[in-house]
Structures are given as C-alpha cells and as structure tokens.
Amino acid sequence: MNIRDLKYLVSVADYGHFGKAADACFVSQPALSMQIKKLEDTLGVQLIERTGKKIFLTEIGKLITQQARDILFRVEEMREIANTAKDPFCGELHLGIIPTLAPYLLPYIIPSLSKAFPKLTIYLAEETTSNLLTKVSQGKLDGALLALPIVNEDFAALPLFEEEFVLAIPLNHSLAKRKIAKLSDLENKTLLLLEDGHCLRDQALAVCHRVNAAEAQNFRATSLETLRHMVASKAGITLMPKLACKSNDGICYLPFNAPKPVRTIGLIWRPSTPKKIVLENMVSQIRKVMFKQKMVRVLNTPIMCRNK
Amino acid sequence: MNIRDLKYLVSVADYGHFGKAADACFVSQPALSMQIKKLEDTLGVQLIERTGKKIFLTEIGKLITQQARDILFRVEEMREIANTAKDPFCGELHLGIIPTLAPYLLPYIIPSLSKAFPKLTIYLAEETTSNLLTKVSQGKLDGALLALPIVNEDFAALPLFEEEFVLAIPLNHSLAKRKIAKLSDLENKTLLLLEDGHCLRDQALAVCHRVNAAEAQNFRATSLETLRHMVASKAGITLMPKLACKSNDGICYLPFNAPKPVRTIGLIWRPSTPKKIVLENMVSQIRKVMFKQKMVRVLNTPIMCRNK
DNA sequence: TAAAAATACTCCATAGGTATTTTAT
DNA sequence: ATAAAATACCTATGGAGTATTTTTA
Q1: Which residues in chain A have Cβ-Cβ distances shorter than 8 Å to B48?
Q2: Nearest CB to B45 within list A45, A64, A86
Q3: Straight-line distance from CA B41 to C1' D6, in Å?
Q4: To the nearest whole percent, how much of chain A has pLDDT over 90?
Q5: Measured CA to C1', what is the nucleotide nearest B27?
Q6: Which helix (H) or strand (E) covers residue A103, if one does?
Q7: How confident is the model at residue A52, as a pLDDT?
Q8: Does any strand C atom come closer than 7 Å to the Cβ of A37?
Q9: What DSSP element (H or E) covers B156?
Q10: I need a surface site. Which of A90, A173, B74, B118 has the fewest CB within 10 A?
C-alpha cells in the first residue's frame, strides 16, 4: 500500500470518474486505474463498482475512502509539523476562544499579535469550553483562550490574567447610586444568567451559591450581548466580566470590594504541539498588551518548557 | 513520501540503531538509511542525529515519529476495516460497559454471545459513560453498553431493556416487613449513593429530587458492591438496579409499585463503524437472552440500517 | 456509436542488494 | 580497533506512459 494510492482513491471518490480523477492527480487514466485495482487486491475487497459508463463506491469503499481521507489529512499534518519546525513563526495558527471573551479581548490583542507575528496567519474559532477542549485535543485547533483551571491533565496551560466580575444593574436600580458593591448585596437577589454550556454561567452560579442568590427562572441568555440588553431594559441584574463593560449603554457597572469575584483567563494547548514556542511567545505578548490596558490583573507565571 | 518510509522511521526510533531497525524491517541497512535520508529531504528537517556510534531523534524527529506512528496505526485500521467487511462476524470486537452493569449483565449474555459469534473475539472494558463515549468516538471501542439516552447526536443507539430500581434496605429496617415500596416512602430519607462519574448516581439523584430525599453526607461509594456492603451493615439505604440484587446477602430488596423508577440500558456505536452489522445482531441476541431471564423489560425498537 | 474503463506493451525511476569506505569511540 | 552508518554501484521491481481493445448506455 502507498500514500499515493490513497490519493488516487480519494480522487476517484471525489470525481466519480477515472479519467477526471487521473487528470486531477496528473497521471494517465490507466496508471490510476491500475493502482486502484492493486489497492483493491491488497485490501481484498472491491472498492468501486464499475458498470461501464458510471462508477460507484461500494459500501466498504466509502468506509475505506473515509479512512484514506483521514490518513491523507494526517500526512499533510506531518508536513505541516515539519514546516512549523523549520520556522515556527510562519504558517497557520488556529486559535479557539470562548464566546464571553472573544468580542472583548480580541480587539485589544489581535492588532498587536498580527504585528508581532507578521508571517503567521491566525484563524479564530468561537466555541464553548468543552468544544474547544475537544478540538484542541483532536488537533483541529492549536490552542485556545478560555477560563482556567482545566481539570483535564492532557493540556499544557499558562494563565494570562485575572478578570474581575462586576455587578451590572439598570441605571434606575436602588444600588446604582453606590460606587462599589459588596458580594452580600446579592443576597436573596435573582440574577439573569447565560444559557448552559458557557463557563461564565457556571462561574456566576458559583458566586450565587456563595451568597445565597438565585437564578432568574424562565430566562437563559444566549450571549453576553443579549444579557446586556436585558439589564439595560431593566429586566434584571447580572454579573459581567470586566472586559465586557461599556460606557453609556444604559447600565451601571459596579465593581465589588475585595475579595473580588474573578475568573482566570489562560491559553491552553496540546503538550506535544509543534506550535508550543509560538504559543508561549503569544502568552508574553498578550500579557504585555493587557498590562498596558490596566483593565485586568496580569499574571506572571513563568513561561518554561514543560515536558509530559 | 511513503508508508514504508514511516515504518522505517518508527523502527529506527524503536531500536535506536539503523542495523537492528533494518533487520526488523527485513531490509538491508543501506536501504533503510537511504530512505530515512530521503524522508528527511522531503520534509526538509533533520529527524535523526547521527554521531557515529550512537543516534538520537531530534526534537522535531520525535514529533514526526509520533505522527508516523499515528498514521501507521490508521493504515492498520484500514486493513482491519477491509477484513471486517470480508467477514463481519470474524476478528475482534471491543465493547465498553458501565461498571454498575458489567458484573451483573455480562454473566447472562457473554456465554450466549460467544456461542452466537464463535469467530469473534470480544474484548471488554469497564468505564464510566463519559469515558465510553470518548473511546467509542475515537474508535478505541466498537460499541458500548450503557444507560440511555445519550444526548450526543454522533452515536447510533438501540435500546435493549428497561431495568427497574429497587429499594435496598437492611433486614432490620422498619420498611423490611413490607412487600412493596412506594416512591413516597423515600420522602425526607437520606440515601447512600455512588461517587461522581457514575450515571447511576445521577439517576438516583433524579429520583431523590422527585420525592425530596437527600444524599447521605460524607459518604460516596466507589462501587455498587461497596454500596451493598454498606446497606448490609445497616449504614443506610439505597436504590439498586434490579440486576444487581442478590439473595441472602443480608439485604431486603423492595420493588416499587408503578410508576417504577427505571433506567434504560442500550448499545451505542459510531454510525460509520464497519461492525454495525455485528452490533445489530448482538442487540437481537442480548434481547433474546434477557427476555428469557425475565429480570428486565426487554424493549423491541426495530433494528434497521440508519444512515447519518 | 460514443464515452469510459481495461488491457497490452514498453520504459525508466527508484528501492534494494552487496561491497566498501568513512567515522567516532 | 571496532562497531556502525554512509557511499558506490549494480539489479530488478513496479509505476507510468502510449496505443489499443472491450464494454455498456
């Protein structure tokens, strides 16, 4: 068996036509036909049904083709690993980020990252934490920006900063005259929260449990922006991460006095990824930018090469 | 690049020696050396550090070797897929099963399955639901026996039977004289439960919430057997799945009157697995056996070929 | 009859073998 | 001095091309 044979098979599957498939592979039709037949012989199963004019994949042919695609993808990945090793700060970097962070953090860091890594093309994907973890471990993403800690041991992680939660209340709310909030202000209050799947929801619920606050029934926001509009329209109060605060949006954002409720934002990756060096450099860069912004407390856990 | 080259690389990585690696691949040392060098040329990176006597993998060499192992594994998988297609009822079948079911169900079904599928070697792995789902989707398991429903859409599933929960109480307990229990008997009682991760724990908790029963504090059993011994030693009461009941073990098992609390046991698999036919046949077989046992209510959802 | 895949035959690239050299311990 | 990898050179397998035949819609 041969990687080239798998390419031929996938090409036939894609074109449904030996001649066109051969063209796409830059070989003659008999050459491709011959190799497909050999592949069928070595596997001992018929992959393609030839009925003169039209051809179909057999059931097993579909399965084998799927596996072939998978193998070819991993071979490409191997080339990509080699290229990354030659120049890690070059090529593609696929980053995931949680939805409650993306629109507020990215405007600060992306311009600086593009400048710091000019030969790197950064692709961004907004997903919930559990999806991010899956995609990072499957190698569909190189790294992800999310709330730490991650219990799973299969990831390397570096903290970036601590982001406080502030109390978001309508302007006409009784607390809106205050300059600062206490956690105990939440006691016996009900809060508007995000829908399931968002880590921010769990973090807010944890705060609620500490002070005996409850979740508003019959409402689950699908995004932080929805939540913001609900508060602005006086439908209730909620906890907002600091970076998501705006000014003049009809909401009063009250900081808590110490101990402030916070979430820790960090960057995670597969310990074995060849992009480790890039990601570690990115951590330094993001910390630098966010330190200047003074919106969050930047963390300075040393960046070192860990092995697993 | 070539699958053979990847084998050579992995062999060198395993033996740390070109000569021995070549022997293991049944080729001469120069042949193998040549191909390794070619692989390094095509990837454009040095994979192996040759310092005369001793050789080492470079950092990037380790990454590429890992990727090569992965690719070779998938190529083997492809052969396995082909072999399975030639005779699905032959070869290996890797089945997962939840720990609260395995020791009680397997004695009933394994003898019958071995008889029904004599050319099939069945490997069993006991794991919690979330681990089973991961391993099935990764292809490390062909299928899994667990409690339905599974919310994830990426699996095909067939229900096998409904297993009732019965009330397990010490023989001297006030309820032990009764022949039958009501759910309301649990009101304001505390129950011993399993530790986190077992789906049985969640199912029992769901029953608790319905009747306002609580979980015993400061105790979480690691297995159903521990739980049984705790009840037998009069430490508390619990819910037991019917199949886990024994006789003469110092425990009174009280069935509930309708509507009985139950869990649905089913078999799941990847929709694309080539072992689908085997698994569907296995469902029929298990239903047949369990129907004879009369311990559970066998379900008869039709077995059909679904496509995704 | 026309389009598409299979077959026949030739050629050459390259993997692999043997013999030998180089290199580092 | 010796073990181990690299180099040199030859052989042969098999992949690819062109020309042609077969098949069926």
Answers
A1: none
A2: A86
A3: 16
A4: 61
A5: C16
A6: helix A102-116
A7: 65
A8: yes
A9: strand B156-170
A10: B118
Beta carbons within 8 Å of A167's beta carbon, 6+ residues apart:
A175, A181, A185, A186, A237, A239, A240, A253, A254, A255, A256
For the residues of A190-238, what is the DSSP string, one character each?
EE--BPTT-HHHHHHHHHHHHHT-EEPTT--BSSHHHHHHHHHTTS-BE
User: Can you list the domains of chain A with their CATH numbers?
Assistant: 3-85 (1.10.10.10), 88-308 (3.40.190.290)
Q: Pick A91 or A123 by higher pLDDT.
A: A123
Q: Given this model, what pLDDT does residue B307 score?
A: 35
B218 touches strand C (CB under 7 A): no
Over residues A44-65, the mean pLDDT reads 85
The arithmetic mean of pLDDT across residues A196-203, rounded, is 93
Of A67, A85, A272, the CB nearest to B78: A67
- Closest partner residue to A74 (CB to CB) among B2, B45, B70 is B70
pLDDT at A301 over 90: no
- Residue A141, pLDDT above cutoff 90: yes
What residue type is B14 in one-letter code? D
B304: CB partners within 8 A, 6+ apart: none
Write the CB contacts of A23 (distance below 8 Å, at least 6 apart in sequence).
none
Mean pLDDT of chain B: 90
- What's the average model confidence in pLDDT over B218-242? 93
* B149 CB and strand D closer than 7 A: no
Interface-testing mutation among B2, B3, B41, B47, with chain A (most A C-beta atoms within 10 A)? B3
Mutate to test the interface with B, among A41, A63, A270 (most CBs of B within 10 A): A63
- Measured between CA atoms, the residue of chain B closest to residue A70 is B74
CB contact under 8 Å between B82 and A43, yes or no, is: yes
Say whether the CB atom of B41 is under 7 angstroms from strand D. no
Q: Is the pLDDT of residue A72 over 90?
A: yes
User: Å from A240 to nearest chain B CA?
Assistant: 30
- Across the range B97-117, mean pLDDT stands at 96
From chain A, pick out residues whose CB is under 8 angstroms from the CB of B135: none
A308: pLDDT strictly greater than 90: no
User: pLDDT-based confidence at A75, cuts 50/70/90?
Assistant: very high
How large is the average pLDDT for residues B126-137?
Answer: 92
Distance, in Å, from the CA atom of A179 to the CA atom of A184, rounded to the nearest integer, reads 15
Rounded to a whole number of angstroms, the distance from the CA of B116 to the nearest CA of chain A is 24
- Structure confidence at residue B306 (pLDDT): 41
**Surface-to-core class of residue A179, CB atoms within 10 Å of its CB (0-12 exposed, 13-18 middle, 19+ buried):** exposed
Query: Which long-range contacts link B188-191 to residues 24+ away (Cβ below 8 Å)?
Result: B188/B212, B188/B213, B188/B214, B189/B213, B189/B214, B189/B237, B190/B214, B190/B215, B190/B216, B190/B217, B190/B236, B191/B215, B191/B216, B191/B236, B191/B237, B191/B238, B191/B239
pLDDT number for residue A273: 86
